[in-house]
Amino acid sequence: MESNVDMTETAKGRAAWSGRWAFVLAGAASAVGLGNLWRFPYLAAKYGGGTFLITYLILVFTFGISLVLLETALGRKTQQSTIGAFRSFGKKYGFIGFFCSLIPFIITPYYCVIGGWVTKYMAGYVVEGPDALADGGAFFSNFITSQEESFLWMFIFMAIVFIIVSLGVEGGIERVNLVMMPALIIMAVAIAIFTMTMPGALDGAAYYLVPDFSAVSPELFIGALGQMFFSLSIAMGIMVTYGSYLDKKSSLTKSVAQIGTFDFGVSFIAGMVIVPAAFVTLGSGEAVASNSGPSLMFITLPQVFDDMGGAAAPVGFAFFLLVLFAALTSAISLTETLVSIVMDGAHWNRKRSCVAVFIFLAVVGMFINMGYNALSFIEPLGEGSSLLDLADFISNYVMMPLAALMTCLFVGYVIKPKTLIDEIAISSPFKLRKAWTVMIKYIAPVLIVLILIFFIAQQFGLFAV
Ligand code: PFF
């Protein structure tokens, strides 16, 4: 298995996965991250639990994996990363790849801010102890509003990412992943079981699992769609690049289904821990929904751990260590993407590009972090919102849908689905080709356009949600 997870160089000098599993693992490592453990649970809590879960499930296994398949097939066909892949069909299409490439420049800085929170919490279980962290939110707000500490931990997280990226130890990180990913799942399942034994948790589980169709709203749908893009790492070019490293024998359809299943599975379990825990702490579905936001993992979970008595410190530490690991593998994949965009775009070597990306992330990350302290008076999306919320909003709700729309139109009407169907069929029979074509040509573009129209209407106050 181990030799399967190394990247090797092909005769042409292009990096290549050594096998299909290496690709699946890398896709899953990039996909499974803060999106699953931090973002998904709070969105599920906010949008009516079960209703959000079902909407998300359907979206991932129709729209989501269709797009992952499209991107990987585009990469494998053209043997190029994003901008080159689009450009290889005509210079004028390069802008689509360029637009996709802008998105990780927005996501990565705020990803590092949250990575810093996770690192701080992991250390907090050793230094401050579980009681200090479970004080109903004061610890969290003191931390993020602090002028020094919050920056320090963001830089610690960034430093770990950059050490690994500059060493280029893809084989190493993937290997560690083989141990850490299953460990993450075992931990999450164990904590979910513990949560279920708490009084009131079953009601919380029901809130999470049983759909309440009165909760269906356009906002819920947009939330699920944005989450799908973020979590599956689509609409930002990364899967095109990963697909370009894949050999022609490996089944694209199977690999993509496995990445989607893994990614959904981890989100599902994370929600199973955090939503019922929030329910126990807050008492009702409405309270969960109205209190839910980025801080859910950092305020309610420590309270759950604190009830574990002597086990609180090791369990809390292990949980945040594993979240940190998931965050790191994704942050590394994001940073790698940025470094390779700069290398290709500016024709700089790896070292220089790493330095440039580091400076960029440090400056923008600090700015976003200041949104919680020095610049907290800026509330770009209404009361209580932060610069981080704005970055998350622009990337997940505006740019990714637009990038996905352009990609679908490009494949559906410019190069035609058949071009990629032929590529997919090289490695495995593609039974769902008709459904996939309908998805790419009609369903996906129509859905995205409807969402964007709704969104614009909402911004102008034509909708009250
Ligand atoms: N999919 C990651 C997550 O859910 O946390 C975030 C991400 C990683 C997006 C890598 C994009 C990417 F290239």
Low-confidence stretches: 1-6
Give me the number of helical elements: 20
How many beta-strand runs?
A: 2
Strand order of the largest sheet: 1-2
Output the helix-strand order.
Answer: EEHHHHHHHHHHHHHHHHHHHH
What radius of gyration results from the CA coordinates? 21 Å
Give a list of the ligands: 4-fluoro-L-phenylalanine
| CATH fold naming | Hydantoin permease
Distance between the terminal alpha carbons, to the nearest Å? 50 Å
Report the average pLDDT across residues: 87
User: So, CATH architecture?
Assistant: Orthogonal Bundle
Helix residue percentage:
over 70%
Instruction: Please outline the major beta sheet.
Output: 2 strands, antiparallel
What number of domains? 1
Form type: globular
The SS-based structural class is mainly alpha
Oligomer category: single chain
Assign the CATH class. Answer: Mainly Alpha
Into which percentage range does the β-strand content fall? under 5%
